[in-house]
Design brief:
This protein has 343 residues and is of the alpha/beta class. 35% of the residues lie in helices and 14% in strands. It has nine helices and ten strands. The strands form two sheets. An eight-stranded parallel β-sheet has the order 4-1-5-10-9-6-7-8, sandwiched between helices. A two-stranded antiparallel sheet has the order 2-3. It is globular and about 55 Å long. Bound molecules: 7-[(3-aminopropyl)amino]-1,1,1-trifluoroheptane-2,2-diol and zinc ion. 7-[(3-aminopropyl)amino]-1,1,1-trifluoroheptane-2,2-diol binds next to strand 2. The site of zinc ion (ZN) has 7 residues, from loops.
Length: 343
Amino acid sequence: MLTIYSDDHRLHHGAAELYRGRLVPCFEMPARADQVLDRVRSAELGPIVAPDRFDRAALTRVHTDDFVAFLESAWDEWAALGETGDALPYVWPAVDLRQDVPPDHIDGKLGFYSIDAAVPITAGTWAAVRSSADCALTGARHIAGGATSAFALCRPPGHHAGARAMAGFCYLNNAAIAAQYLRDQGHARVAILDVDYHHGNGTQSIFYERGDVFFASLHGDPKVEYPFFLGHADERGSGEGLGANRNFPLPWGTTGAEYLAALDLALADIAAFAPDSVVVSLGVDTFVEDPISHFKLVGADFTTMGQRIATLGKPTLFVLEGGYAVADIGGNVAAVLTGFSGA
Ligand code: FKS
Ligand code: ZN
């Protein structure tokens, strides 16, 4: 299996995030990708290559033009205020406020184009974000070219980012961009399987009204878990997308066996959809020792996960999402990938 990776991810390193009323060091840090690269290399999964550069147009297939323009210029507008620390949003067009008048000031734009405050923008953020999307697109290009699998070692992650919003450590939705690329390259039906601990709200929203991209997600129940306001079982898609969205919210304490039982249901839905290819939003924050999550998967469960995904028998692009037990993230990702490859 080919891995696509760039050192550019190091250009993005947020200083702090708000966690239970305190500013704490960002959980989403460069060491995560370094760990994954290290373990993918020692697992001898296959060649590790740099991403190709794709046109901006590949991004605006799923994101709005104004949102991409915001990401491109946000740091410069922030720095023009004389600020040198991270840009962070602090006010949002939530209940009773207008969504139809984009603000001109960067403070307003940061809120208009986000869902939460877990999205620091630094001087190097855009370069890293763009490169992360290029990793996903390069993986998708290999799949479109006939490869049976690829691993896009993306950082920053993407699945919380919507068409017009960054959120939860995510800026561009790498998995959605890759899925759309596969559609544009002639794959008539694409399925996205999101196994990150958190609901992939951005991916769901982007494809919610479409019948050509199936979205299935297993995640911590949004009644008790971020992102809280999407990811319930009754969200089945709408319009032409009705039936092409499937959520499996699971309680805190979910074990590997319970998780794998739900995974089988998601895989059955995907098999019934009969996709030409599958994009897996691969987060390993379902791990028992993850510092911000509450599932109980262990190493062997990740191997089984990879094996079960392989039973679909479809060309599969794995796209890295979350996982914050830094010492274990690489081993757990490698377990999924080797499980898939060996199956
Ligand atoms: C605690 C409150 C904010 C945000 C959790 C974000 C999870 C991100 C992720 C991704 F894959 F996108 F990286 N919590 N500071 O793991 O889903
Ligand atoms: Zn997550």
